[in-house]
């Protein structure tokens, strides 16, 4: 029992992925169906499966447990959070409903705006006011605060959000509200906008604070359930939680700031992709994560996933910007580009074949799972096209039923449209891949990038199956599929650093900047983050800090994040202007000459790398000999079935190149290689595919 293990789990909408990383570099994986009524069950089932299969003892899981979950996202989307009350400055309680008055559909005059989450009868005001500099103009009284809190609780409020005007400059009044609440109703959780998002723009700050309060009671009990379940099973490791910004935090901070977990699973996948790309010496990759419910993409340039504060939750229309709730917290810049393996195909009112947005999930799942699903899904199409083994199962979790997939496809798609079952399946596959390729190209253009120079790095249970067709249609020439692609987001959790961040709004023109005051502000922010890292057990010598500022040309309404030097002083003026111009040019193609510049927000990120993943050994798997067999597989570019070798990845020899077609089976996924494509295995267990140029779309 000399070897210890780190354990990670990613709770998805369809599957829960589990990974054990040994102290000597071995990697063990498991994939089990998610159970949203018993969140701990699949986690323990996956852990037990890995331990029993490899003769390990649960006491060897003695380091860190890292978890990612879609729980926060689901609470927001399904509006199943706590009844929440909002306290605002007098005259501002309707900001969260008025929003930005942006019409997300130009031609739909009746398009509804995002649901404000909190009804008007639970939005209260207090008579207080600060000026823009944070000076007190009118202080609230304790008696008024007590009355407002009492009224909200009497109306059923289980959690309180506080968003007062200019509190990002001076949090004194918000802290006073918190102090009163702790005295009269300490059992009620509270979220302050100055703590959740300390920057200007009242609507965005209100949304982030409200959502944090909305999910806080549920997430606290949710994380406690997971930790208590693990401890009851004998796991004595520390529990850390993945954030949307690409770092992990302690469970305690996760309970206080659950909104930071909004996109935790996809963020972990992007981190894993960046790690794999670095090892493969491919600095620019398009991370393509396709699971059971959705598909997401992230541009990784120079080995780093891009991070944005322009993120929307719970969109009314999935692909229309402005139809969701803006969350301006740092988030790995992922875009939802399409459906997942469980997305249901249907014929719309105009007689056209459509896929999604509804998903079969894990219960009842696709028709081929044999768990009661009656509608054809993307997974059913892949099975009928020969990409999945008709006699196989998905990581031991589900036995596939081709007969049920065929029956569902015929009844709901092929028969109504007057086509064959394989034509219907191919249509579903092509629609899904075309939509994903188009969305990926648009995402790249919006970032000032050409997706054709990127390598498509595919993972997730369904990613490697669809990667070739997505790459073909988006113009990418190469595909890289990492080892253990089916559970890759869980692996990404193990390479994530501990990370915290903070932001402060302080307007200043670059021409008249007070360098000493700004440096003092950054030092104060770093000290705040240093305390958070220390509370998470990080030693001072492990801490690293990154400084940025949100800058813009005077007169503009939105900013560009710009790197700052390690120390601010007058000698950095020209360098700072140059950095901003370079960042601006990267987004918009050119920068403006002779224009005055200003800084709006100051940001500091504190992090510590805690991972000991060494690369080659950690990504290696237990390889065993596998006999090559064949089966018929359909390829859209030649519109025909081809007798295709089915190869277990363990049969591939590192450094040797092969020619397609081929179906390469991994634990939890299958890599589709087309006719004429070249492929091989590199030293780190990655499968590299070079597309046949004649197959380009």
From TrEMBL:
Domain Acetophenone carboxylase-like C-terminal: start-end pairs: 524-684
Cellular component, GO annotation: cytosol
Domain Hydantoinase A/oxoprolinase: 205-499
Source organism, top-level taxon: Bacteria
GO molecular function annotation: 5-oxoprolinase (ATP-hydrolyzing) activity
SUPFAM superfamilies per record: Actin-like ATPase domain
InterPro entries on file: ACX-like_C (IPR049517), ATPase_NBD (IPR043129), Hydant_A_N (IPR008040), Hydantoinase_A (IPR002821), Oxoprolinase-like (IPR045079)
Ranges for domain Hydantoinase/oxoprolinase N-terminal: 6-183
GO biological process: glutathione metabolic process
Protein name, as recorded: Hydantoinase/oxoprolinase family protein
Organism: Sheuella amnicola
